[in-house]
Amino acid sequence: MVEGIGHSLVIGASSGIGRDLAVRLVSRGSKVTAVARRADRLAELEASGVYALAGDVNDLSLLPALVATAVKANGLLTSLIICAGVQCIKPIRMMAVDEIEHLYRLNLTVPTVLAAQFASRRISTDDAVFCAISSVASLRPEPGIVAYGASKAGLNGLIHGLARELGPRRVVGVAPGWLDTELTQKFPHLYGEAFKEKLAKESPAGPATVSSVADAVEFLISPAASRITGVVLTVDGGAVL
Ligand SMILES: NC(=O)c1ccc[n+]([C@@H]2O[C@H](COP(=O)([O-])OP(=O)(O)OC[C@H]3O[C@@H](n4cnc5c(N)ncnc54)[C@H](OP(=O)(O)O)[C@@H]3O)[C@@H](O)[C@H]2O)c1
Fold first, then answer.
1. Cβ-proximal residues to 114 (8 Å cutoff; 6+ apart), any chain
2. pTM score > 0.90 for this model?
3. Which of 4, 79, 120, 180 is least surrounded, with the fewest CB atoms within 10 Å of its CB?
4. How much distance in Å is there from the Cα of 17 to the middle of ligand 1?
């Protein structure tokens, strides 16, 4: 769909949605810089032509150098795709302060700091696209993931505001429903077979998949979406309806 479009910086590319996007964008002829912490996973990506940078984006002081290194290697960004995120499933009364701080930092502070970098002409082209992965939890918070939902609702607010401030650059998001990745596999007591069967019954078009989310991102960053900005596209097979 997106043939040979410039340079995509994918934050959180060693698994799940980010990995799928890094591999498919490079296969279309884009330059891709992939960021994550796990060096072994990044080495696998490098074998498919992705330029990989290992780093923990929670260390906010690293972000300017990380972005500058990507631009130096592959040119101005034509898209910045933020997939790194963290989930915490437990009643709010059980959440420790450091868990809350970590959740908001990765899900909201990191995208905000990266947006500040992205906005510069030294970093991105005038028609570049900022895209972040939100969640349906931002639209319909569920008990046990209230803080996660709030962090993603904040991300939606960031997307809406940036779309107004950063034009002609576009700012978009995708809000997936529950899907099978390492993020959900960490909670087998909840995200088990019974949960998946219930989700399938509640999703008129079928539950979200990694590739369906990546399809939506690929569309939103493409010239076919050139008049779409400030939108957070829900990809959940209709489960929140
Ligand atoms: N899975 C779902 O059901 C679901 C539903 C709705 C929304 N989402 C959202 O979708 C996004 C992608 O999640 P996913 O499901 O694809 O999960 P995933 O497979 O766990 O991917 C998360 C990626 O982020 C990277 N990452 C995490 N912390 C990082 C850090 N501090 N610094 C650098 N990279 C970091 C991870 O790599 P390393 O561990 O190697 O650093 C990994 O590549 C998240 O924002 C999530 O909230 C997921």
1. 11, 57, 63, 67, 80, 82
2. yes
3. 4
4. 7
